[in-house]
Amino acid sequence: MSLMEALNGRPAPSLRQQMRxxxxxxxxxxxxxxxxxxxxxxxxxxxxxxxxxxxxQLLEVGCGNGIASRMLAAQGHRVVGTDISPLFLxxxxxxxxxxxxxxxxxxxxxxxxxxxxxxxxxxxxxxxxPDVEATLQEMIRVTKxxxxxxxxxxxxxxPITSVLDLLRLIAGGQGRPxxxxxxxxxxxxxxxNIEYYFQKRSLVEPNFVFRQPDLENQxxxxxxxxxxxxxxxxxxxxxxxxxLSIVKLSVGFGLxxxxxxxxxxxxxxxxxxxxDKK
Length: 278
What we know:
This protein has nine helices and seven strands, in the order H-H-H-E-H-E-E-E-H-E-H-H-H-E-H-E. The chain has 278 residues and is of the alpha/beta class. The protein has a seven-stranded mixed beta sheet with strand order 3-2-1-4-5-7-6.
């Protein structure tokens, strides 16, 4: 099966354990997370802080190296950062204080009471979970009534990303690993993402499409390890069907980002969704 071939149905239950073991043991992947520094995470932190009330109790699910949680705590919030990997959180656990704590936790089974947090957020997590519905339901469960959920990460179904890939390759630039390494692959990705867009827009229920992650040979970034081909349309359908309100389908930063968010929020290359729990 190729990296881009969609799985038929949901991933096998055994894949959940394989992915857990991968994130808990891969020193190579941990090194990739060093690129997630304060500059890299600034947009996400700005997104969350811009939609959080003062002195909120925040939960970051899948916090990776923990830097974004630390940045949010520095803004006066009480923050709990969770990740499935003790390896990723080795350094972060030395930063803990009264405002900031870290906990090893699986996003599919969060160890917190119902309605515990004012705001629950995740960044570049949702594409890495083999059970998207369970993860989103857990995020809803631990959010207080009247609280807020923020989901951020790559829109792996974005036709805009595929168009940019193709134009860059035509101009002689480098391809994007895994997804668009050649012009042919970029064109195929464009057609596929257009099909996904119209298919998902026509459905009332979310249509989560999965792929076989590469957990051995392609630890080079670029979401080779992603299992869910993330789409904001799926998330929109899921949250609305669960009775939540979409505050923002997309929050853009910079002129181009704001224009895309305003006019093509479901096509944006980056998911930045804000949801209210009634």
